[in-house]
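User: Predict the full complex structure for these chains.
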Amino acid sequence: GENVEQHPSTLSVQEGDSAVIKCTYSDSASNYFPWYKQELGKRPQLIIDIRSNVGEKKDQRIAVTLNKTAKHFSLHITETQPEDSAVYFCAAKNNNAGNMLTFGGGTRLMVKP
Amino acid sequence: DTEVTQTPKHLVMGMTNKKSLKCEQHMGHRAMYWYKQKAKKPPELMFVYSYEKLSINESVPSRFSPECPNSSLLNLHLHALQPEDSALYLCASSQRQGSYEQYFGPGTRLTVT
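Assistant: Here is the predicted structure of the two-chain assembly.
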């Protein structure tokens, strides 16, 4: 089945700096890669996603890049703010796995004011 | 209505109790999911319902019993749980099974004593 690895597990940045979180996946049949943000005690919220026919997608301060050849995708947050502090999960959707999402292990991002 | 709702928010139950978790969505989604999330871990898929029929059971113990009474409602019946079943139980929905976007409810924090 699909295996998604996420790095780093924790990331601490100064307010205003950029943050990058990386994920790798194992199955080249995966075709959809969402990113979820989960604040403490709250639900995972879809913040951005990318499909396999696109290499990059941007939404204000967040962007996601996908390298299908290398089977990795990354989340980029620019001009970080304290409210960006949360746990971020990447995921991959794979038609061979019942179209289900396989999640990475999560990254705890701390933005210091 | 663009939200998935869950009740109760918190639940404490003994190992001999029977309780139910409820999930509701009014987005016209025909796929609904139960996930279990332990602290500092990603959501772990338990069950998938597609058009009110159980589509995927990820080898979940029979002390967890899902039910989908109609296209808007999803229940999870709990009986004879163990302390290790304590976790955040998340419901999610998507337009169809395998649709790209999955939306999560706020979860039920379950403690088994």
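The longest strand of chain A covers residues 30-38.
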